[in-house]
Amino acid sequence: MMKLEGGRQGNLRLNLPGKAEYYSFNPSPLDSVVPLHLDDAQIADLARCSRKIGEVEGMSHFVPNADMYLAMYVRKEALLSSQIEGTQCTFDDMLDPSNSTAYKREVIDVVNYVSAAELAVREMDRLPLCMKLLREVHAELLKDARGSDKHPGEIRTSQNWIGPHGCTIRQAAFVPPNVDDMNDALFRLENFMNREDLDPVVKAALVHYQFETIHPFLDGNGRLGRLLITLSLINDGVLTKPVFYPSYQLKLRRSEYYERLTAVRERGAYEEWVSFFCECMSESAADAAASLKSLVELHNRSEKLIREHLARAATNGLSLLEFLEAHPIVTTASVRDGLGVSRTTASNLIEDFRKIGILRVGDEDRQRYRLYVYEDYLSILRAGVDPL
To answer: Which of 278, 272, 202, 203 has the alpha carbon at shortest distance from 8?
Structure first.
C-alpha cells in the first residue's frame, strides 16, 4: 500500500469489505493545488521552457516545407512515447514501405499514435479539450493494436492497478481511483483543462500528471497522457500544431519521470514535478528547433546538388526531393507511384540521386525490390530514438 505524507495530493480510499479490501488513491482536484509555490529557480525553469517552446513554434511559421518536417516530428513523438512503454520498433521500421501491408505489432502501435494525434488536432477545431475528444482519440490509438481488447474509447468501469506483470491489486505499486472517484476526478479535470487563468506550461504539466494518476482507460493511458501534453498547449494557444516531441526527454529520463510522478502522489511534490517537466520540455523543444534548422540546411544542400547535376531532369529531381522528405525510405515502385512517372524514369532518378550522394542502397544483399534511404535526412530525425 502507498504511504502518503501530508494530504495536499489526495488520500487513500478503502474499498470492499473483509479479505477483498484494498486501498485506491483519490487525487486532490487540481483547482485546490494551484497556485503553486515555485521558487526562483523553478520560475527560471518555467521561463526558459516557455521561451524554447515559443522559439520552435515561431520557426515553424517561417521554415519552407515546415509541415513536411513537422509530420515527421509527429512520427518521432509517436515512436518515443511508445518506446517509453517498451516498444522495440525503430524509426526505420515505421517508415519502411515494405511494411505497408503487414505491419509488425509494434509498428501498428506507432502508426496508430500518428493517426490519433492527427485526429486530435483536427477535432480541436470543433471541440474543446474534453473527455469526448479524448475518448475518440483513444479509440484511434488502440484500433487493431496492443490493447484493442481493452475497450478502446471507453472509460473503464472496473478497478485497474499498476505493478509487475501478474501482481495482485494488493501487490500493486499504484492503484488509481476507484470508478466513482475516477468519474468525479475526470469531471474536475475536464473543467481544469479549459481554465484560462493559468500558465499554459504549468497547466500542461499538471494535466499530464492528473490524467496519468486517474488512469481512466484499461490500456493506453501513458501514450494518451503524453499526447495530452501537446493538446493542452494547442488548446491554450501556445502551439498551433505539434512542433516538437515532448516524449524525447521523458524517454531519456524515464526512471526519473516515473519517480517524479510518484513523488507527487506520495508527498504532494507538485513544484518539483513542474520543474522537472519544464526541464524536459525545454530540452525537447531545443532539440526540435536544432533539428528543424538542420533539415532546412540539408534541403538547401540537396536542392543545390540536384540543380547542378541533373540538368533537364532537375524538375523531376526536385519533386523526388520533396517526396523523400515525406518518405525517406523508398523503392523504385514507391517513387514511380508517388511521382506519377514511369518505372524507367523512377529508376533513373534514383540512380542519379545515388551518384550525387543523396540516396544510398539500404539493403545491399537484395537484387530486387531494393530499399533506398535518404540517410542524411534520417540521421537528423533518428537522434534519441534507439529502443531502450
So the answer is: 272
